[in-house]
Specification:
heterodimer; A: 205 residues; alpha+beta; Cyclin A, domain 1; SH3 type barrels; five-stranded antiparallel sheet; 7 helices; 5 strands; globular; B: 195 residues; alpha/beta; Nitrile Hydratase, Chain A; 2 domains; two-stranded parallel ribbon; 11 helices
Chain lengths: 205, 195
């Protein structure tokens, strides 16, 4: 989906709030939030693609204003409701207040019907596709050309895995893009590597 | 009863209530929170990556194995990744190439090897900017790269996970593996700092 989470290349942001030896957690509840969403994965309530997609489905204003671990918590709670572990009303009763959750999911999809294998050195293009459900193709690479460097082991296909749909596992390809091609006239010179699922790619003829 | 909307529950109330739900479903969250504290503080730490780097600096054959098949090489050192991370790729910095890791879509990292991602890595600014303005972002973070250095930004868009192999600092020829490992930090393993 073309969601608020898809931040690569968005302009207007200020300096990175970096500090040396920066903390991972800033409060005890943050580590607890991380533990609980991991526990739910471990117990098979949902998988990581479903979890990522639940974060992506947060209402954009909520996504941007929430801290990282509030997003984790929102995804965890949303999936517990969607999977039938609890109702929203029960959650709100337990929490003594309203409980913002992710918005409903659009349908997912299975592997691309014209999926092809690529070799190192192949010139490829990221398919110009807009997918309403979960996917792991960052928007800034849509329709862009690059060169295949290598191939990964097989992974569950996120567009299906994030929606409980059956699909064949796929490799990803390490594809190298030039930042100057991705954002002509408005990027600093760099090579960008991304792991692109086979279904997202076509040969650049 | 009127249908007056409730104020949003506090984050702690929301977290407590979901913890209660997991408890009701027999998942024993209290126990796992303790386990998770231990994993995050004692096991998923950048000292793991630092050990890999120190050995790669002093053992050329290990370095070749680490760069050739990172997933196998970390097992030699007693390290592992969660089952869904199926591929570990080590990126070697040289005098001419500088690698830096990010995740524009969320916060993916090789957390069992380099530690859980620091706050700034998960923040909007880093995710938005580092792919498009890498040189400026690195400079703002204190890493001023010479103009001839080719920057490679690695966007972690799948469950292949990365670690940067930093350049060995000069004047460290006489240090042993433990002393070398002590020089390495999380920022260098992500690629936003030199050593």
């Amino acid at each position: 989906m073309d969601g608020m989470h898809d931040l690569g290349g968005k302009e207007g942001f200020g300096p990175v709030r970096h500090s040396k030896n920066a903390a991972v957690f800033h409060a005890d509840w943050e580590i607890r939030a991380n533990a609980l969403y991991s526990l739910a994965v471990k117990c098979g309530v949902y998988n990581m693609d479903e979890y990522r997609h639940a974060i992506e489905r947060m209402e954009p204003r909520h996504y941007l204003s929430a801290s990282y671990y509030e997003r984790s918590l929102t995804a965890l709670a949303s999936l517990c409701v969607e999977k039938g572990l609890v109702t929203r009303e029960q959650l709100e009763q337990l929490a003594h207040g309203s409980y913002p959750l992710a918005l409903p999911s659009a349908p997912g999809r299975s592997n691309h019907p014209q999926r092809k294998t690529f070799l190192p050195g192949d010139l490829v293009r990221v398919r110009d596709e807009h997918v309403p459900g979960h996917m792991r193709m960052p928007g800034y690479l849509r329709g862009k050309c690059g060169v295949v460097i290598s191939k990964s082991p097989l992974y569950p296909f996120p567009d299906a895995h994030g929606h409980g749909i059956h699909a064949e596992d796929e490799p990803t390809y390490d594809v190298r893009f030039e930042a100057s091609h991705v954002w002509p006239n408005d990027a600093e010179n760099a090579q960008i590597h991304a792991a692109i699922f086979e279904s997202y790619l076509e040969l650049n003829k | 009863m009127n249908a007056k909307p409730h104020a949003i529950a506090s984050i702690e109330q929301r977290l407590d209530s979901i913890q209660t739900v997991l408890e009701q479903h027999g998942m024993e969250p209290d126990k796992f929170i303790d386990t998770f504290h231990d994993l995050a503080n004692e096991h998923w730490i950048p000292e793991n990556g630092a050990r890999l780097v120190a050995r790669a600096w002093s053992d050329p054959e290990f370095k070749q194995r680490l760069l050739g098949d990172g997933t196998a090489a970390i097992q030699e050192m007693g390290l592992s990744m969660p089952p869904h991370h199926r591929h570990f790729v080590v990126l070697e910095n040289t005098a001419d190439i500088h690698n830096v890791i990010c995740c524009t879509l969320c916060s993916c990292t090789a957390f069992t090897i380099i530690g859980l991602p620091p706050d700034w890595y998960k923040d909007l600014e880093y995710r938005a900017r580092v792919v498009r303005e890498s040189r400026t972002v690195l400079q703002e973070m204190g890493l001023d790269l010479p103009a001839h250095v080719q920057i490679r930004v690695w966007d972690t868009t799948a469950d292949t996970r990365y670690m940067v192999l930093p350049q060995r600092p000069t004047g460290t020829e006489n240090l042993n593996a433990e002393q070398l490992a002590a020089l390495v930090n999380k920022d260098a393993l992500i690629g936003v700092a030199h050593l």
